[in-house]
Automatic annotation (TrEMBL):
Transmembrane segments: none
Parent sequence residues shown: 22 to 265 of 642
Protein name: Glucosamine-6-phosphate deaminase
Protein's gene: nagB
Coiled coil regions in record: none
Annotated Glucosamine/galactosamine-6-phosphate isomerase domain residues: 9-231
Domain of life: Bacteria
Amino acid sequence: IVYENSVTASKAVAKEIADLIRVKQSQKQPCILGLATGSTPKGLYAELVRLHKEEGLSFKNVISFNLDEYYPMEPDSINSYVRFMKELLFNHVDILPENCHVPDGMLPKERIADYCDQYEAKIESLGGIDLQILGIGGNGHIGFNESGSLQNSKTRLVALDHITRVAASNDFSGLNNTPRTAITLGVKKIMEAKRVILLAWGESKSNIIRASVEGPVINQVPASFLQEHNNAIFVLDQAAASKL
Ligand code: GLP
């Protein structure tokens, strides 16, 4: 779906999320959201906060699972995704803190594999992700599933691509300070989500959007796996859609 700009697109996606939360509320069910970080979903979270403050949208039945976190990463650090989510969404709505899950960037290395299994088990025990929000990296990564990730990959510790680290290096004031690894939800759990909405804005994403939507389904472009999902959409502004 191509919108005029990222503002109208973000509002439309926020409305879909709000409608889903309300349907689940009326059914007395939790609403399981898969959430993304990066600059792309910022407008979406701002609109969800507005819907909470101005239209009384409650997040009390929402249980969220974030896609990823840098490793190592302290939760209070300026670049942590825990902090990002608190500052942009969690601190401004009535979601219960115990219902907010972001991968733990502080675990000792030997505990990461078990932790990742538990992260997936928690999602499964709740019946899976109802709606997964995604951004896309310049190399086609989803979460931190970099080029070469397998379609059945599990939640795990990954090495970040050079191109991903360069893109993040401004935030970390230089490549040397940029983490080399991260914990990411695997492609398999993303593909198991009941609905997936990938967001992309701007000309700089247009080539990878074309490769993801119109190119072959290949490990080199993990977002291309979504072609095989039966309920996934790409929500784009005109610039991101300009090469389609
Ligand atoms: C990071 C995140 C991804 C995100 C990507 C794109 O790598 N881990 O989840 O989709 O950046 O970031 P941006 O939205 O800032 O372009």
